[in-house]
Specification:
Layout (H helix, E strand, L loop, with lengths): L1 H31 L10 H30 L12 H12 L7 H13 L19 H17 L15
Helix pairs in contact: 1-2, 2-3, 2-4, 2-5, 4-5
């Protein structure tokens, strides 16, 4: 019974995060690709949305990778195991990019680096935040590639209209 609750909670969390990513992608991509056209977003909000896209994508990768690691190691999650990135990232890559052709692990690493830039527990231990690190190319693009890698495994189940498959 507890294993079912863990599974249901993971699925629910993933659904909620995906909805947020879908909305962010619908705004970020047209803004980034507008060229010299009219701005769609206030620039600081655009950078914040890029950052938030990385946080959400990393959370999905972390959840899926951790679930895969648990299965690989004969556990069900009911013990409240803390599974670190060095454990779950190989499990995620093995499942979603087994031939390492998609560059999933590198994209997850880039996404994690962006996510980590605003850790509040390290404010005094680093140089000031460079908001350009939250730009489209440095933040959104690797996270979006990682998301496309995850969606590709069950491509027939993914709507062709999703903003998450946009390049």
């Amino acid at each position: 019974m507890r294993q079912r609750r863990v599974h249901d909670r993971l699925v629910s969390n993933l659904k909620h995060i995906l909805v947020g990513l879908e909305m962010k992608a619908a705004l970020v991509v047209p803004h980034a690709k507008r060229g010299n056209g009219k701005s769609l977003l206030y620039e600081p909000y655009f950078q914040t949305m890029n950052f938030e896209f990385c946080v959400g994508t990393f959370s999905i990768c972390e959840g899926l990778g951790s679930a895969l690691w648990l299965v690989e190691n004969g556990r069900d999650g009911s013990a409240g195991d803390q599974i670190g990135p060095l454990q779950w990232r190989p499990s995620l890559a093995k499942k979603f990019d087994p031939e390492t052709k998609l560059g999933l692990d590198a994209d997850v690493g880039s996404t994690k680096d962006v996510r980590d830039k605003l850790h509040q527990d390290k404010l005094g231990a680093r140089a000031e935040i460079d908001w350009h690190a939250f730009g489209y190319e440095k933040a959104f693009v690797p996270a979006a590639r990682a998301m496309r890698s995850l969606l590709q495994i069950n491509a027939n189940d993914v709507s062709g209209k999703t903003n998450l498959a946009t390049k």
